[in-house]
Amino acid sequence: MINNRAMMNKYKVKGFIIFMLFLLCIPSQSFSQQLIQELHADTIPLVRKDNYWNRLFHGHIDRTFEKKVDMSYVAAPSYTREASFGIGGMATGLYRLDRTDSLMPPSNFMLTFNASIKGFYAFTFGGNNNFKGNRSRLSYQAAFFNKNLDFWGIDYDNCDINPVIGYKRQTVMLYANYQYEFLTNFYAGANIDFLYNKAAKIDNISYLQGQNNAYTTTGLGFSLQYDSRDFIPNPQQGMYILLRETVYPKALGDVNRTLWRTTFTADFYQKIWQGGILAFDLYGQVSSDNLPWTLREELGGTNRMRGYYSGRYIDNNIASTQVELRQHIAGRLGFATWIGAGTVFPTLKDFEIKKILPTYGLGLHLEVKHNMNARVDFGFGKGSSGFVFGIGTAF
């Protein structure tokens, strides 16, 4: 009874801290003014102060037709299970290469930084650039991480029985994907990705099963897509289907053999009532047998299988699905709730139904920029639960 009470108190304290930290991210002046306007629009006329600083830091209205780059900034304390307490910052921007085209969605980019008391620090930069005419686009991301993490192994069976240990993971990642629309909503594309991962320190080297503690790989890929989403970072309606094949040539890495990977994604978005969107995600990725641990699939994280520590289960291949209801509440606030399932597995013939894991949860969303959300989700899984912070929708 004492242990259960202590556990409940622990979660209450964490929940209160997370909620308060999230409130710090809310641009209080413009948000409160907007909320008052919406609640009392019929009874209390209120003049909202609309100066440069409010638009720069707090504006969530699309101003890309009047400004070359519409920027917003957020800095606040943060907490994740992987990194513990720290401080994070974000700069996000919307822009249009053709400001006379009102039908094309704006392009976007985002820069994030995070550092924590556990020695975690990370820089990421990425975005989606829509070229004039809306026939082609470029998606890109660059990231550097230094993380002190928990580790259970590099395959499902060992992750399920091994006691947790610690290790320091250092990552450099570069990714670019170019897409050209050859028919309405149909795209052909090419991608390149570079990945360097190193276990700089590890409590038990046997958990790597004889593999090197560091690998460098470069992938070259080709993809076909059907994409009718109205806005990539926060779709309100449409469909997205992706089939991508990536090859990792032996000459462009240090794995000493050529590797391959096939990725399939199917996402659907449908408005079901006022302010309500039903979103569905199906995801699968299969690869060469016995991949280096740096390329293996990790269950959990901020987008799929929320509620599991990122990397709680690791293996060659992954399959997952989820359904999420997203509901606008008032002003910039909304919430989401989801249910899903997924697993990792070594080969297709070794896929086992009994190893499928559940995920479900709910979250609070805040629109920090026009159609760009910050979110705090709380996910549950098998013997696992926790908060997830994210920018943009989960999928």
Which properties best describe this structure?
single chain; 395 residues; mainly beta; 16-stranded antiparallel sheet; 4 helices
Query: Could you tell me the number of beta strands?
Result: 18
**Strand residues, percent:** over 45%
| Element-level helix/strand string | HHHEEEEEHEEEEEEEEEEEEE
Distance between the ends: 40 Å
Number of helices: 4
Our Rg estimate from Cα atoms comes to 22 Å
Helix content: 10-25%
The coarse silhouette is globular
Low-confidence stretches: 1-6, 15-48
Sheet with most strands: 16 strands, antiparallel
- In the sheet with the most strands, the strands line up as 1-2-3-4-5-6-7-8-9-10-11-14-15-16-17-18
The protein's oligomeric status is: single chain
**How would you state the average pLDDT, rounded?**
85
Give me the secondary-structure category. Answer: mainly beta
Description:
With 395 residues, the protein is mainly beta. It is built from four helices and 18 strands. The protein has helices spanning 2-24, 28-39, 52-58, 156-161; strands at residues 69-80, 84-95, 107-116, 121-130, 136-151, 165-183, 186-202, 214-227, 238-248, 259-273, 276-287, 297-299, 313-315, 317-330, 333-345, 357-369, 372-381, 384-391. The strands form two sheets. The chain has a 16-stranded antiparallel sheet with strand order 1-2-3-4-5-6-7-8-9-10-11-14-15-16-17-18. A hairpin with a 2-residue loop joins strand 16 and strand 17. The longest helix has 23 residues, at 2-24. The two termini are 40 Å apart. The relative contact order is 0.11.
